[in-house]
Amino acid sequence: MGRTAKYNQAALSLPVLLTNIYLYLILGLFPLFVTNYYFNIQLSKFCFFVISTIVFLFLILFFGSLTRAGHRVGRRNQGRLSPFFFGACCLFGISAVASCVCSPWVEEAFWGASRYMGTLTLLCILIAFILIRRNFPYAPSVIYVFYICAAVVCIIGICQRFSFDPIGFYQNVPAKRQASY
Fold first, then answer.
1. Nearest Cα to 152, choosing from 50, 33, 22, 19?
2. In the chain, N or C: fewer CB atoms in 10 Å?
3. How confident is the model over 104-161, as pLDDT tens digits?
4. Distance between CA atoms of 117 and 37, rounded to whole angstroms?
5. pLDDT tens, position by position, 37-91
6. Using the 8-state DSSP alphabet, how is residue 35 labeled?
7. Contact in structure between 138 and 74 (CB atoms under 8 Å)
8. What are phi and psi for residue 73, nearest 5 degrees?
């Protein structure tokens, strides 16, 4: 079986398709996603990331159980984490949960406060990393979507720095507070 045939077979796998959709959402839509302009950008980004990661996890668990066990894509060991690295990931997750449980501010430690990530976000990042590592064959189109989205975000930021508001973010911000955004 040739390299192209292996890639086409892997691309038709449902967990791989779900992983590609998740990556397009996170790398393409997430940087551009805002609600209520800049007023609640932290909450809207947090909700978008956590909800999409949890939905991705449940879809992978559900549809992954329907496919044959141990299905890996691409190279022979591509989806596997070395035992040391998997152990390090587990220790990171355990330490995140332990720090939340031992904290005197459990609610803030779990949800996060201000610009600090909470345990829920850290665990979502860890789960997304492991699932992407297991189910993603390299696809340049995902990287290209990220490059395009990053360029758009940078252009918007540069325009806003020079007081040009191309998409109307400043329309409800008082003039004296516009410098902080």
1. 33
2. N
3. 999 999 998 877 888 999 999 999 988 888 877 777 888 899 899 999 989 988 998 8
4. 21
5. 767 788 888 999 999 999 999 998 888 766 554 444 444 445 567 888 888 989 9
6. S
7. yes
8. -110, 155
